[in-house]
Amino acid sequence: MRPNQTIVRNEWLCFKSDLHIDLKTFALLEVLDTMSAPKCALVLSSLPNELLEAIVVAGQEDRVTDSNWQTQFGTFKSEWTLSHVSRRFRNVIVGAPALWTLAEADLDVEGSAEILKLYLDRSQGYKISATLRSDSKVAHYDILLRRLNPLVHHINRIWRLRMMVVLREEWGAAMLVPFRDGAAPYLQRLEIVNNLIEGDNWGIQMFCSGAPRLSFLRVDGFKFELPAAPWAAPLTHLELRRSTRYLDPANVRNLVAVTMQCHSLVHFCTST
Predict the structure, then answer these.
(1) Is the pTM value of this prediction over 0.85?
(2) For the chain, what is the domain count?
(3) DSSP state at residue 119
(4) How many CB atoms lie within 10 A of CB 210?
């Protein structure tokens, strides 16, 4: 048994153990389990490109529909794992930009920010989903801004943006500033969480130039401020989490004024 064949099989089994799909859809995966390492390596090396890409897509399903992204940040990534199985796998997967559209980064970690840039490059012109996290552990705001800027430059192709942040007192909501004045023409879903349990309740000032396709907005630990953002009108789903404890009379008036501008609103939810 050649060492590289053993490595290929081991990598495959590690991938398969993390793959949350219906294995009946890909009966081939069960067959591979019964093969010796040389046969497994041979079959894997001969998989059609289309099937290989389909397996990667199947492994991404949980991340596409994931509603628990805050607690499952940094989970298994099929495109990343399979692209390290063999040189051929890498060439096929890296050469398929549609497989690199689920980008995420911990902005407190330099390496994670570099991987974000890799996803932005490999996804080429495809619409992307971006999930960002920062506990503001970096020493200087300019470092955080430098790591965030590559995504800001691609804002015109983001369809979903999710951010979980801790807004430090000395920075305030400065982390949101890069998104303040721009437009997000394809943004459909925006979720933003302020993970600071106690402290000031910051307002949302993002995409002041418009987000005409935004239909879903979930904010946690923020408040609405007037004037309402231009993207309020197309909203159909609005969730305000950890908001009512900040609802002094002025904030209540703002909230009422904002919701009255959401002419298409179907679902509205608020909680402490």
Answers:
(1) no
(2) 2
(3) H
(4) 16
Instruction: Look at residues 42, 75, 96 and tell me which one is the last residue of a structural domain.
Output: 96
40 & 114 share domain:
no
Same domain, 55 and 73: yes
- Whether the CB-CB separation of 206 and 226 falls below 8 Å is answered with no
- In the numeric block, the tokens 């951010």 are attached to 163
- Domain range for residue 115? 101-272
**Residue partners of 27: CB distance under 8 A and separation at least 6:** none
Pair of tokens at residue 178: 């890069």
Domain boundary among 71, 96, 121: 96
Signed CA dihedral, 11, 109, 243, 256: sign only: negative
162 phi-psi bin (left φ>0, alpha ψ -120 to 50, beta other): beta
Within the chain, what is the greatest distance between any pair of CA atoms? 74
Do 116 and 226 belong together in one domain?
yes
Instruction: Say if CB 72 and CB 164 are below 8 A apart.
Output: no
Structure tokens at 11: 């990598």
Q: How confident is the model over 189-237, as pLDDT tens digits?
A: 999 888 775 545 667 778 888 899 999 999 888 776 666 677 888 899 9
Residues 77 and 120 in one domain: no
Phi-psi region of 172 (alpha: psi -120 to 50; beta: other; left: phi over 0): left
